[in-house]
């Protein structure tokens, strides 16, 4: 893997890249220190881990204002949205780990088959060791600290790489974590793609990456060189299906919230809408009213709204705005919005109708405030459109009939599914969050995060007089009789 390859795949925006003075020798030094520390942390008990999690939680609360300021500096994210999407879910993840890590750490006794009569079996959860967390730019604080909390709960050391696209937030993460941890336990590496490239050369025990599918492939290839396990939290085109019987006002309100949250720069944002032809006008009408109530203005004045953030950088602004141009060239109509302003990377909430399936907006993950609408005649046609594309990270179904949602779920595949709402499956720490195939590998949140950063070690203990001795050679007629009886009655 080359630096040029990673740079190209990550669509880096040069205007916001900062390079810190990390050399490969620095990385190796800290890696070796963490490797040594990880052997000590293997012996840590739940009280020690809870203490560390509480210190992390207190640091997040202490730095709340700095986090708000940093995210506003990076892409004009409002303090209210920072609290809802960055601080609140992070604290929730840490609190969940504090409450449950004692239980999670306990060895789990499991059944032992009759063929091993007298033996006992259990699963022991042990830390994976030295872990690398590579965080994205769209939720740069939460998606760095939430997996960190899981890694700490599991007893690991962590080398953390925040996104270079959000340098102010990266600075705050560095300052905050430096107060809580020594670098032999948690170390933060700021910088551009060269730092990420150098980090990926180290033989980590686990890599946790959140970002785009193209970069995820590069991370997986780098991990393969050292046979390192990986968790890939990627993205994809998450569809929303509106059924004939759906409540259009409710659907519009919830889809618009999920679509325009963080200016659409959310991995589980509704990426495109599938709707019966006869329902388009009604949906668009409700969507317009909802959007204007959210931002308390007409589209031409959305730039003044403190609650609507910007596209993270010029490169992504150019990419997202080009989807509008391409879709219109291929027959789409701008039903709402469509305003763009390059001076501050502003793209207004936009709804596109009559969108062609071969438009680029229907091929790439949008990661912007654009909602393309595609019509369908039958539910099976909508399902076919979904299944023609890579498996999405999320799938949303709006219907009053449980039979309809079950029909869709059985005939599609996605990382997660929400019925009659969007995005909220992330809030429940009892549900695994992750993708499938193209949209990711592995999952986290709550217990699933603890397991992601743990090795489930099987332990079997046999008594002094083991029944397995009956299977030792020589394979007499008696032994063969025992095998036949065991096969017939116990296996």
Automatic annotation (TrEMBL):
<dbReference type="GO" id="GO:0004029">
    <property type="term" value="F:aldehyde dehydrogenase (NAD+) activity"/>
</dbReference>
<feature type="active site">
    <location>
        <position position="267"/>
    </location>
</feature>
<keyword id="KW-0560">Oxidoreductase</keyword>
<dbReference type="GO" id="GO:0006081">
    <property type="term" value="P:aldehyde metabolic process"/>
</dbReference>
<feature type="active site">
    <location>
        <position position="233"/>
    </location>
</feature>
<dbReference type="GO" id="GO:0005737">
    <property type="term" value="C:cytoplasm"/>
</dbReference>
<dbReference type="InterPro" id="IPR016163">
    <property type="entry name" value="Ald_DH_C"/>
</dbReference>
<keyword id="KW-0520">NAD</keyword>
<comment type="similarity">
    <text>Belongs to the aldehyde dehydrogenase family.</text>
</comment>
<dbReference type="InterPro" id="IPR016161">
    <property type="entry name" value="Ald_DH/histidinol_DH"/>
</dbReference>
<dbReference type="InterPro" id="IPR016162">
    <property type="entry name" value="Ald_DH_N"/>
</dbReference>
<dbReference type="InterPro" id="IPR016160">
    <property type="entry name" value="Ald_DH_CS_CYS"/>
</dbReference>
<feature type="domain" description="Aldehyde dehydrogenase">
    <location>
        <begin position="12"/>
        <end position="458"/>
    </location>
</feature>
<protein>
    <recommendedName>
        <fullName>Aldehyde dehydrogenase</fullName>
    </recommendedName>
</protein>
<dbReference type="InterPro" id="IPR015590">
    <property type="entry name" value="Aldehyde_DH_dom"/>
</dbReference>
<dbReference type="InterPro" id="IPR012394">
    <property type="entry name" value="Aldehyde_DH_NAD(P)"/>
</dbReference>
<keyword id="KW-0175">Coiled coil</keyword>
<feature type="coiled-coil region">
    <location>
        <begin position="36"/>
        <end position="73"/>
    </location>
</feature>
<dbReference type="InterPro" id="IPR029510">
    <property type="entry name" value="Ald_DH_CS_GLU"/>
</dbReference>
<dbReference type="Pfam" id="PF00171">
    <property type="entry name" value="Aldedh"/>
</dbReference>
């Amino acid at each position: 893997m080359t630096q040029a390859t990673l740079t190209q795949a990550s669509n880096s925006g040069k205007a916001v890249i900062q390079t810190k003075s990390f050399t490969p020798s620095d990385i190796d030094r800290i890696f070796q220190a963490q490797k040594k520390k990880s052997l000590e942390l293997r012996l840590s008990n739940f009280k020690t881990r809870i203490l560390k999690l509480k210190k992390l939680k207190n640091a997040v609360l202490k730095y709340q204002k700095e986090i708000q300021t940093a995210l506003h500096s990076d892409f004009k994210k409002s303090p209210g949205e920072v609290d809802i999407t960055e601080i609140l879910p992070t604290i929730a993840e840490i609190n969940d780990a504090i409450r449950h890590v004692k239980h999670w750490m306990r060895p789990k006794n499991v059944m032992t088959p009759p063929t091993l009569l007298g033996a006992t079996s259990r699963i022991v959860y042990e830390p994976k060791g030295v872990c690398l967390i590579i965080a994205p730019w769209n939720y740069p604080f939460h998606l760095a600290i939430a997996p960190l909390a899981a890694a700490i709960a599991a007893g690991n050391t962590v080398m953390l790489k925040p996104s270079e696209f959000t340098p102010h937030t990266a600075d705050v993460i560095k300052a905050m974590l430096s107060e809580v941890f020594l670098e032999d336990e948690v170390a933060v590496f700021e910088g551009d793609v060269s730092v990420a490239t150098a980090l990926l050369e180290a033989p980590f025990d686990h890599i946790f990456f959140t970002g785009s599918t193209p970069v995820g492939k590069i991370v997986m290839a780098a991990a393969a060189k050292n046979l390192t396990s990986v968790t890939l939290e990627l993205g994809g085109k998450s569809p929303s299906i509106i059924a004939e019987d759906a409540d259009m006002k409710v659907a519009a309100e919830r889809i618009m919230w999920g679509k325009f949250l963080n200016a659409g720069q959310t991995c589980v944002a509704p990426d495109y809408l599938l709707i019966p032809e006869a329902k388009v006008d009604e949906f668009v009408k409700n969507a317009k009213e909802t959007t204007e109530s959210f931002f308390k203005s007409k589209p031409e004045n959305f730039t003044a709204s403190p609650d609507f953030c910007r596209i993270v950088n010029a490169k992504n602004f150019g990419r997202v705005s080009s989807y509008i141009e391409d879709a219109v060239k291929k027959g789409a109509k701008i039903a709402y919005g469509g305003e763009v302003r390059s001076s501050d990377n502003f793209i207004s909430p936009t709804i596109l109708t009559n969108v062609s399936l071969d438009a680029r907006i229907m091929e790439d993950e949008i990661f912007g405030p654009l909602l393309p609408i595609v019509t369908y005649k039958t539910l099976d046609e909508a399902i076919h459109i979904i299944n023609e594309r890579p498996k999405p990270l999320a799938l949303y179904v709006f219907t009053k009939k449980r039979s309809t949602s079950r029909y869709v779920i059985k005939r599609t595949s996605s990382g997660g599914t929400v019925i009659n709402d969007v995005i909220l499956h992330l809030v429940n720490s009892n549900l695994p969050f992750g993708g499938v195939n193209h949209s990711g590998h592995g999952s986290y949140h709550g217990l699933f995060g603890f397991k992601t950063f743990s090795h489930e070690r099987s332990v079997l203990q046999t008594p002094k007089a083991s029944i397995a001795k009956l299977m030792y050679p020589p394979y007499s007629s008696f032994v063969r009789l025992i095998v036949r009886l065991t096969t017939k009655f116990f296996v």
